[in-house]
Design a protein that fits this description.
GO molecular function: DNA binding
Radius of gyration: 19 Å
Number of domains: 2
Distance between the termini: 57 Å
Number of helices: 10
Structural class: mainly alpha
Order of helices and strands: HHHHHHHHHH
Protein name: HTH cro/C1-type domain-containing protein
Pfam families: HTH_31 (PF13560)
Helix content: 55-70%
Largest sheet: none
Number of strands: 0
Length: 177
């Protein structure tokens, strides 16, 4: 019989850790069973569900798949945990909703906030999501996010869509911004 898991500490990763643990218990799997179903070690999987820090997205998705859980739901929870855990590192001025955008500085802050809400994906990944080379060049993404250039409306809409926000009302709000 294995020893009981330690209680989850309160923090950014607690909802994700609780969700992972619940999926493992529902599947009636041990960490050794999970390790055999993934290419990860039992200790890596155990740390992922500890709640002490936010694990990598790859670990979370593999954990969920091994339990027979929805990896997209795992990714959604991971993005929230990642955003919450990195929020302390970002100045408050970079957390702004798109409906509050009035200036280029506001737009820049809203774009950065959206980028972090999506788990800060690599620029090349955003470029690939937008349809490949030329649609959303990764170099342009870098320049816009570092405030070296001002984005055009086409860039903003492509960036928002690449970040996964494809709802019509949100695109309209971003278009107005």
């Amino acid at each position: 019989m294995s020893r009981p898991e330690t209680p989850i500490a309160d923090g950014a990763a607690c909802a994700l850790a609780a969700w992972l643990r619940a999926r493992r218990h529902a599947a009636q799997l041990s960490y050794l069973d999970l390790a055999q179903r993934t290419s990860l070690s039992a200790s890596t999987l155990s740390r992922a569900a500890s709640g002490n820090r936010v694990p990598s997205l790859a670990v979370v998705r593999a954990y969920a798949q091994a339990c027979g859980a929805d990896p997209d739901e795992a990714e959604r929870l991971w993005k929230q945990a990642w955003y919450d855990s990195t929020a302390k590192k970002r100045p408050l001025r970079y957390r702004i909703h798109v409906d509050c955008v009035r200036t280029y500085a506001d737009l820049h802050a809203a774009l950065i906030d959206l980028y972090h809400r999506q788990g800060s994906p690599p620029y090349r990944q955003l470029e690939a999501r937008a349809g490949g080379h030329g649609q959303l060049p990764h170099a342009t993404v870098g320049r816009v996010l570092s405030r070296q250039s001002r984005p055009r409306q086409e860039f903003v809409l492509a960036f928002v869509q690449a970040c996964g926000d494809r709802s019509g009302s949100q695109l309209a709000a971003w278009s107005r911004a």
